[in-house]
Amino acid sequence: MKLFDKIYIITVILIIAMFAGFNIAMANYNTLQNGRQYRVEIKRAALEIEEKGYGSIDISKYKYITNIQEYNNSNGFYNVNSDYYICEINGSLYRFDYITGGSSNTGIIIMADIIIVIMASVVIAVFAFVRQKILFPFEALSGLPYELSKGNLVVPLKESKNRYFGRFLWGLDLLRENIEEQKQRELKLQKDKNTLLLSISHDIKTPLSAIKLYSKAFLTNLYKDSAKQHEIAEKINKKTDEIEKFVSQIAKASSEEYLSLDVDAGEIFLSSVINKIAGYYNEKLALVNIKFDIEKYTDCLIYGDKNRAVEVVQNIIENAIKYGDGNVISINFAEEDGCILVVIRNSGNELPETELPHIFDSFWRGSNAESNKGSGLGLYICRQLMHKMNGEIFAEINGKDMVVTVVFQKI
Question: Nearest to residue 406, comparing CAs of 324, 316, 321?
C-alpha cells in the first residue's frame, strides 16, 4: 500500500508539472511569435520608406502597424497611448505605432488544458478507486494466510460488500470455519479413540491374567483330573474369545472413517461438471503439450454434488498427468443400466496388473509412484465420495493405457 501511495503522489505531481509546463511553454511561444510578427512588419515598412519615401507607404497593408509618423519637433511625438517603436530612416526619425495582435492560438491552448484536466481527473479517480476498492480490502486480509498457518482460527473476518473481494472474503472465512471444525472433529475423534484404546487395554488385562494363571496350572500339573483339565481348557478358550472380541473392536476403531467428506448430493447437469474440467485443463495441458480430448456427449441430469464430482474427475486427471507418459489424456462417455459412465484414459501406464486391485486402498501407493510425491489417499477419497453420491469408480489396464471409469446415476 505504501508503494502504491508513493506512485500515486508521484503521478499527481507529474500531471501538475506537465500542466504547468505546457501552459508556460505556450505562453512563451506566443510572446515570441507575437514579438516577431510586429517587428517583421516594422522592418518591412522601414525598408519601404527608405526606398520609396514616407508618402508612398500604405498603412492598410500592415496588420500590426496602426500608424507611422515622421518627427517634426512636435511634443506629441513621444506622448502616445499605444505601443510604438522609433526608427531612423534616411536621417529622419519615424515613430511606428503597433499592436501585438493577441494570442492567435488561445482557443487551442484552452482546449488542450481542458483535455489535460479531464485525463488527469480520470487517472486520479482510477488510482483512488483501485486504492479504496481493491488494494485496501486486500491489505485487510493479507495477514490471514499467516494467521491460518500458525493455527489461529478464532478471529473471524469482517464482512464486506466489496464487489471484487466480497465473495473472496466470504470464501476465506468459510475456509477458516471449516478448518476450525475439522480440527475440533479430529481432536474429538482422537480423544474418543484414545479413550477406547485405554478402556479396551484395561479390559484385556483380566482375561490375559486368567489365561496366564491357567497356563501355569497346566505347566505344574495342578489339575490331574481329565474332566477338570477339559473345564480349564474351555475357560481358556472363552477368555481368548473375549480377547479376540477386544482386538476386533480395536481394529474397527482403527479403520473408522478418519476423513470428513461432506457431500450435498442432488440433481446436477453433466455439463456443469465437464465444462468446469474443460475450462481448467484445456489451457493447463496445452502448456505442457499434452493432448486433451473430450468426446462429444449429450447433456443430462445426474445425481451428485457438483463440487465433489469435479473433485473426483480432477483427482483422476491429476494422476493421469503425474503417472502417464504425457502424450494423451481423454474423457469419453457411455450409458449403461441408467447410469452415465465418465471414462478417463491416459497413455503410458506403468502400473503392474497385480497392483490394480489396491489402487483405491487408503495410504497405498503403487510401485510406479517412487519419484512422485503423494499420500496414497487420492483415489481412496474418490471412491468414498462416489459411494456417498450413490455412484461407483473402478479402474482397468487396457494395453498401455490406464482407464478409470466414474459412474453416476442418471436422473
Answer: 316
